[in-house]
Amino acid sequence: MTEVTQITALTTIQCKQQAVRSVRFNIDGTYCLTCGADKKIKLWNPHKDLLLKTYGGHANEVLDVAGSSDSSQIVSCSTDKSVILWDVTTGQPLRRYRAHASSVTCIKFNEESTMAVSGSIDNTVAFWDVVSRRQEPVQVLKDAKDSITSIQVTNHEVLTTSVDCHTRLYDLRVGKMVSDYMGAIITHGSLTHDGQCYVLSCSDGTVKLIDKDSGELLNTFTGHETQDFMLENCVNEKDNQVISGSASGEVFYWDLISSSVTNKLVHKMHKPVVSICHHPTDSMLLSACEDEIKLWGNVIAKE
Amino acid sequence: MSGSDSDDENIVQYGTPLEPYEEDEVPSKRKFQQPPDQYAVDAHGRRRFHGAFTGGFSAGFGNTVGTPEGWTPATFKSSRSEKAQTASQRPEDFMDEEDRSEFGIAPKQMQTVREFSGQKRSRPNRYHEGPIPGEPVLEQLLRPVHESAAVRMLQAMGWREGQGTEFREAKQDSEESSESEFEYETLFAPEDYEPYILQRKNDKFGLGYSGLSRHSVLGNLVGEYGSSDNRSHLVMKDKGKKVSIRGQAFGVGAFEADDEDIYATEDMSHYDFALGAPSKQVERKSVKRDKNVLEGFMKSTKPLQPVPSYPPPTLPRDYKPKPAGSRRTRFEPTDKPQRDQGLGRHDLTADARGALLGEVPIPKASTENIPQPGTRTPTQNAIEKLFGKNVNFVSEKTESEDFISIKDTGGELKTFRPFVSNPSKQARYERYLESKTTDSDSAKDKLSKWEREREMLEFEQAAKLYRPLTGVIGDRFTHASQPDDALNPLCAVAKSSINYGLASEEMIEAAKKGAFGVMTRKKVDWQPEPLVCKRFNVPELGGSRQEQNKEVKPKVSYSIFSYMESSVHDKESFTKEQSKFSGSKSLSEEVRVQTPKNQDKTPAAASVNKRMTVAELFLKESENTEEKGQEVTETIEKFDRMDLYKAIFLSDSEDETKETDIFNEMPKNVERNDSPPRGIFANINFDEINSWKRSQSDKNSSDPKQNTNNTDKTLSSTDKNNIDAKQNTTDTANKVDRNATPEELNVYGPKIPDNFQLNIEFNTNEIFKPKFRRKEDRKDSSSSDSWVDAKEVKSKKHKKKNKKHKSKQKKSKHKKKDK
User: Per residue in A164-183, pLDDT tens?
Assistant: First the structure.
């Protein structure tokens, strides 16, 4: 009789949002946000399978969403080219920013949630001052030559990935932008928790681990299906596993060092798992596939 | 008593015993009624009738008349902010809802509006809300006369009211005809008579009986037509002192028995005076009665006229009923073929249009059309080596399709003829288009010099405007690099993920090998906005740069200068821009600020980047350029702008003085407008045109060598023109500022690096030569003593010299600085 921890689906939520475009934990992982093709954002308690609030106001599909550090605000971006800042409790939009020339694909808050950073199909990254009433972006980064696919914001860095096969790391402290050519479209980029590596989902069917300082390739993770989907990746809370969705409907876990597949979670076969999000502190994972999100977590099974 | 008691015990009684009659009482016909039953109540169980004699109406607010609450009077309130409205009271205000219900005294019913009821339309009574409420008295007195169309027609034919409508006839009365008054033949209208119209009886009432009219108390018709009297049926008659009110509502109440006729007077005639049967009536004269005829009637001799029937008109065979109510939507397909709109150019394919315009079809792979290896210059090779294969934004190939002159196609093409109204002018215009001059033939047209000059400007403008495809708009477009299929969403777009984002070949190679790192990495300076730094809690970089980063709102400027700067219409810059945005080729800012080892090659690119499209201008303005490397190109732009500014505002007088020196004989145009050009002239460089003109006259006075040059200028040989241009510039440069050395040239404005100077010269001669457009060539050859149009592609040296020349002319502090 041995105790084995096993990752299983703790809860499954039918979001009824047609297609969930992204699923995100809030800052402490107690709630999660989903946004979908039904132009709505939904706030859930995934642990209790509870729908808490629905935020409506976008004119088109909501592509990405992020919660603020104090969980009092939500910022979302949509194909209607707008970025909306929401008040969590009232459900009312506080600001609506309309400077992007095309669909806004990704959005993040900075560490103190004083600024939202959004990336768009119009190849620009815009910094929005959430604190003031200013409607124009504070700064617009126009380095990318194609759509921005993802953004990561740390306390002094902004990492963007783009369809032009480049990652761009903007360092605010140094005033430098480091771009790395990856040879394939990068659909998502994330940073490891120690901030030393990028994890990049490439459209050539690989997930690459890149050293931030040198730009060298540290590891490549393969096995999943990419097809033409904007798959996301993340790193688990201990920085020892790389996780990525797959077009085959599975969630892949790779060992960061050995790059071997350690786990495969089946969300829904043959349906792409487009969005995943790892719990900030626990070994819990949210995955979104079609209009369904699943919360995965460790369960102690006795054998 | 006991017996009676036992009787009582045996009888079972039901109901309430009637009151025993008194001995001498006449039994009443009335049925016994409990007191509460005797009140008529409305639907809500409230008493309907109030008062002793005036009852019959439930009245008051909530039927409150007669209750302690009494009547609720209207409140009058008027304040300074809210003036009291004069509310006219209507009868309905005093009614309860049951009065307006179906069985009330003023029933409200759904009925057709008068307009549609078939009756004559009458204006809705709109009473004045003035001091006197209600219908105006004048309106009551004067009723508008509505005349039917037939009446009007009759009146037009001479009919007057009261006359008959038959043929006029001479009076036949003998006694009147004798009078002199009617000596001449006078025709009199026949007497009018009221036609006795028999109306068919279509009800089953007795003759002469009219049933209860459906008039409501208020007199408005309730669905009854035909009655001219739309007054209330409550008729009040004033007979002496007695007022009698007759009307429907004043009959016998529903719960009341018919009142005895209290006013009836006993009359002896009511009594019979003889016993037995009543005496026999006098035998009526027996008339011979027809069969089936009622007594008192006789059969008419004429049969009743049959009701004429008018058959409906026959419908056209292809008539389709279309109800008046059904409206066609715009989106229904029309039966008619659509009228040809515009030029019908939308049904042409791009190729067909190109063929019409006489274009040379572009080879498919336009991105790969590298010029022949033989003609490649070392610079180009170097650039290509540097940036990969995609440096062909200056391909010589485009030269042929860049400019479609009127000459090539104008004959066949139906260009717009702007001066059709003035044939001689149009002829001159066409001549101008052919030769681009007016000098030779204009003498015949007897135009003064000034007129001719003006016309020249006009022609120039018209030629610019009405040039097919290469007009003002035309050169903002470029040829599609992809076939039209690219716009078809059903066609798969070719994946080209390899060379996005300006990856160099080395980078691609490295990425292929998986050798990420130094090879694939680029480091570029980047300046975060101070506010971003603040929000990220990061110390700002370089406090000195703060002034530069002052927020400039990306406003669309309508200033003439920005327009001049932005209106770079040549194709080369456009393609460059486009490719830059698409990211497939060309250079970016990253390139401009590359590592110093490449710097000797970048100027070539930078000089290309000099040209700006509108889009880039906006971008530039919004981001308020930060990079040092860009400043090189910036300065030149500033020069252009400065040039223009001076051209318009400052240098006018100085030019004038200089002009008068050289061309004394030139008459000064007094009427000339000195204000900056606006409207359609905003884009014209008048000074250049003038200078061109000047060089024309110069031709006569100056040395023969120039003369030959100018006569040669109609030749389209670019090389020759280039040489001409150079000669002209050098000539004038020597002439005006002979002591200007190249070192001095660089003194003015920000210094341009030496290696730039070399490159610019080099590039002008080698790379950009084929890009000169013919029009510009012409200008080149003539713009000897003038500055340069901001739109033109010019070598910087050229510019410098002109600049120098310009500053020399001035007696301003610029010159002093130079000395």
Answer: 888 999 999 888 999 998 88
Q: Are A209 and A256 in contact (CB under 8 A)?
A: yes
The CA distance from A131 to the nearest CA of chain B, in Å, is: 9
Is residue B45 domain-resident? yes
Q: What is the CATH number of the domain that holds A197?
A: 2.130.10.10
Q: How many domains does chain B have?
A: 3
Q: Does A146 touch chain B (CB under 8 A)?
A: yes
| pLDDT mean for each 10 residues of chain B (819 residues) | 54 79 69 67 68 54 59 74 77 72 73 59 57 70 74 84 75 50 65 74 73 55 41 54 55 56 64 65 54 78 75 83 66 56 64 80 52 46 48 40 40 57 79 63 60 82 65 50 51 50 74 82 88 88 51 48 46 51 42 42 41 50 48 50 65 46 49 59 63 54 46 44 47 46 51 56 46 44 46 45 46 44
In a domain, A299, yes or no: no
Nearest C-alpha of chain A: how many angstroms from B517? 4
Contacts A–B by Cβ distance under 8 A: 141
How far is B256 from B123, CA to CA, in rounded Å? 43
Instruction: Check CB contact under 8 Å for A176 and B520.
Output: no
Residue B54 lies in a domain: yes
Q: What is the pLDDT of residues B569-623, one digit of tens each?
A: 444 555 555 555 444 443 444 444 444 444 444 444 444 444 444 445 455 555 5
CB distance from A157 to chain B under 8 Å?
no
Residue B259 placed within a domain: no
Candidates B140, B58, B62; CA nearest to B104 is B58
Q: Which domain holds residue A123?
A: 28-238
Q: B113: helix, coil or strand? A: coil
CB environment B632-660: b (16+ within 10 A), e (fewer): bbbebbebbbbbbebbbeebeeebeeebe
- Contact check, Cβ <8 Å, A127/B532: yes
Does any domain span residue A196? Answer: yes
Q: Which residues in chain B are contacts of A183 at CB distance < 8 A?
A: 498, 503, 508, 511-512, 520
Query: Out of A145, A210, A214, whose CB is closest to B583?
Result: A145
Three-state SS for chain A is CCEEEEEEEEEEEECCCCCEEEEEECCCCCCEEEEECCCEEEEEECCCCEEEEEEECCCCCEEEEEECCCCCEEEEEECCCCEEEEECCCCCEEEEECCCCCCEEEEEECCCCCEEEEEECCCCEEEEECCCCCCCCCEEECCCCCCEEEEEECCCEEEEEECCCEEEEEECCCCEEEEEECCCCEEEEEECCCCCEEEEEECCCEEEEEECCCCCEEEEECCCCCCCCCCCEEECCCCCEEEEECCCCEEEEEECCCCCEEEEEECCCCCCEEEEEECCCCCEEEEEECCEEEEEEEEEEEC
pLDDT band at A24 (very low <50, low <70, confident <90, very high): very high
CB-CB under 8 Å, A184 with B529: no
Domain contains B289: no
Total domains in the fold of chain A: 1
Structural domain range at position B426:
405-468
Rg (CA), chain A: 18
Chain B interface, best mutation among A130, A171, A173, A181, by max B CB count within 10 A: A181
What is the per-residue pLDDT for B513? Answer: 81
Tell me the two tokens of residue B198.
């028999």
Bridge pairing between strands A206-211 and A3-14: unpaired
Quote the minimal CA–CA distance from B683 to chain A in Å: 30
Indicate whether A280 pLDDT > 70. Answer: yes
